[in-house]
C-alpha cells in the first residue's frame, strides 16, 4: 500500500533534503560573495535564514525512511526544513575554518538566505565542563577569529559570539581576576575583528532570564564590547519562555544604556528581573529616554516550547541539572526576524535540536541519566530520540517551513 499523499510528499522532501537539494556538491567558488546593501547590519522582517539541506535532521529523515519509519521520516523532514545555526568550534585549522565558512557563504548565497553562525572557541569555554575546549590562549583565539572573519567576506551573516562566554566567564566559576580580564579582552577583540566584515551582525552572550542579575549581565556586556556590536543573545541551549526572555532582554538593554550614560552608576543600581514589573518599568521610564539607542537582542527558541523543566519534588537530593537534557521539552517559536518587537531582532534556533547537552547524572552516581535509564550522548552528540521528543512536544505544532523554496 502506498502511503497517503501528504506523507509521500513529506518523504520526497526528506530525500531531497538528505541528498542536499543539489546544493551540497556545488563548488564553493560558484557564487561570489555579494556586497551587502544598505542596512547590512540589521535584519529585515522578511529575512530568510539559511536552511542546511544536509543537516542531521535531514540525514535522520533518510535513515528513518530506509527503516520504513514513515512517521519518523515525516517529523524529521519537517524539522529539517527549518533554519538552524551552523557551529564553528575550533576543531579545524585556521585555513580550514576560513574554507568552511566560505563554503557556507556560497551555499547560502545560492539559496538567497542569511546564515546564522556560532563562534565557539574561546579559551576555557564552558568553565571546562561538558563542552570544555577552546583555543589554548588569547593569541591562538584571535588568529581563529580572524580566519572565521575572512571566510565571512562581505555577506550578511549573523554571528552568535561565544555562548556562555560572558554569563559563565571565569569570575563565575572559580577563575582568577586575570582570567576574567583576559576573557573580556578576548570577546571585545573578537567583536572588533568581526565588525570589520561589513555584513557581520554580531551578538554577545547574555545568558538567560533565570541566570545573572540584570545589572551584572549588563556590565558584562559593556565590558565585552556590546557597544561595538548589534546586541546580545539569550537562552542558547536553555529552556526559558519567550515572555520571560523578552522582558529580561528589554531590561538588560535599558540597563546597558543607563550604565553607559549615567556617571557613577553601578550594576547594582539597575532595576532587575526580580522587581515587580510595574516598579521596574517605572524606574527605567524615569532614567532612559524614550528615543535612546539601545542594544538589540535575539532569542534561541529551539527547545523552549514547553518552558523550563521542574523535577518532581524530592526526586533528586543533588543537583537535578535542569538545564541538561531535560525530558519532555519541545521546539519553540519558529525562526523568524518578524518579531513585532522593536528590540527583539529575531527568534533563532541556535542550539541544534536533537544534539545532547552532555552525559547528565543529576547528582546520582551515574553513569546513566535517571530520567532516561541510559547514558546520554556526549555534548553535541546526535540523539534521535531527543530530536523526536522535541518534535512531538513542539509548541506551536511542528509543520513544514513553507518558505523553504528559493525566492526570485
From TrEMBL:
Keywords: Carbohydrate metabolism, Cellulose degradation, Disulfide bond, Glycosidase, Hydrolase, Polysaccharide degradation, Signal. Pfam families: Glyco_hydro_6 (PF01341). The active site is at residues 126, 164, 357. One of its GO terms (molecular function) is hydrolase activity, hydrolyzing O-glycosyl compounds. Residues 1-30 form the signal peptide. SUPFAM superfamilies: Glycosyl hydrolases family 6, cellulases. GO terms for biological process: cellulose catabolic process. Substrate binds at residues 87, 208, 211, 238, 323, 351, 355. Its EC number is 3.2.1.-. InterPro entries: Beta_cellobiohydrolase, Beta_cellobiohydrolase_sf, Glyco_hydro_6_CS. It comes from the Bacteria. Belongs to the glycosyl hydrolase family 6. This is Glucanase. It comes from Kitasatospora cineracea.
Amino acid at each position: 500500500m502506498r502511503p497517503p499523499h501528504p506523507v509521500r510528499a513529506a518523504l520526497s522532501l526528506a530525500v531531497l533534503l538528505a541528498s542536499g537539494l543539489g546544493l551540497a556538491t556545488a563548488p564553493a567558488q560558484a557564487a561570489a560573495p555579494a556586497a551587502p546593501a544598505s542596512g547590512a547590519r540589521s535584519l529585515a522582517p522578511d529575512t530568510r535564514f539559511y536552511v542546511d539541506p544536509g543537516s542531521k535532521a535531514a540525514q535522520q529523515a533518510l535513515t528513518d525512511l530506509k527503516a520504513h519509519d514513515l512517521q519518523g521520516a515525516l517529523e524529521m523532514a519537517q524539522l529539517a526544513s527549518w533554519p538552524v545555526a551552523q557551529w564553528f568550534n575550533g576543531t579545524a585549522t585556521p585555513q580550514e575554518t576560513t574554507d568552511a565558512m566560505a563554503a557556507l557563504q556560497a551555499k547560502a548565497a545560492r539559496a538567497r538566505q542569511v546564515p546564522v553562525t556560532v563562534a565557539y572557541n574561546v579559551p576555557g569555554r564552558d568553565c571546562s565542563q561538558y563542552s570544555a575546549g577552546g583555543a589554548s590562549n588569547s593569541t591562538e583565539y584571535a588568529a581563529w577569529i580572524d580566519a572565521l572573519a575572512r571566510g565571512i567576506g562581505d555577506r550578511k551573516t549573523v554571528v552568535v559570539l561565544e555562548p556562555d562566554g560572558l554569563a559563565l566567564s571565569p569570575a563565575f566559576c572559580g577563575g582568577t581576576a586575570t582570567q576574567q580580564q583576559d576573557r573580556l579582552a578576548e570577546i571585545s577583540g573578537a567583536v572588533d575583528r568581526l565588525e570589520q566584515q561589513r555584513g557581520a551582525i554580531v551578538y554577545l552572550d547574555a545568558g538567560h532570564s533565570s541566570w545573572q542579575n540584570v545589572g551584572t549581565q549588563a556590565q558584562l556586556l559593556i565590558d565585552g564590547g556590546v557597544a561595538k556590536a548589534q546586541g546580545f543573545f539569550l537562552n542558547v541551549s536553555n529552556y526559558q519562555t519567550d515572555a520571560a526572555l523578552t522582558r529580561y532582554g528589554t531590561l538588560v538593554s535599558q540597563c546597558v544604556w543607563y550604565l553607559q550614560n549615567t556617571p557613577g552608576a553601578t550594576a547594582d543600581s539597575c532595576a532587575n528581573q526580580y522587581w515587580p514589573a510595574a516598579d521596574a518599568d517605572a524606574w527605567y521610564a524615569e532614567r532612559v529616554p524614550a528615543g535612546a539607542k539601545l542594544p538589540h537582542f535575539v532569542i534561541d527558541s529551539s527547545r523552549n516550547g514547553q518552558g523550563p523543566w521542574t523535577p518532581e519534588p524530592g526526586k533528586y537530593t543533588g543537583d537535578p541539572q535542569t538545564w541538561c537534557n531535560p525530558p519532555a521539552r519541545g521546539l519553540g517559536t519558529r525562526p523568524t526576524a518578524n518579531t513585532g518587537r522593536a528590540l527583539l531582532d529575531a527568534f533563532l534556533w541556535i542550539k541544534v535540536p536533537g544534539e545532547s547537552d552532555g552525559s547528565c547524572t543529576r547528582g546520582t552516581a551515574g553513569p546513566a541519566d535517571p530520567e532516561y535509564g541510559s547514558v546520554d550522548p556526549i555534548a553535541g552528540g546526535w540523539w534521535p530520540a531527543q530530536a523526536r521528543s522535541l518534535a512531538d512536544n513542539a509548541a506551536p505544532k511542528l509543520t513544514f517551513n513553507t518558505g523553504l523554496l528559493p525566492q526570485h
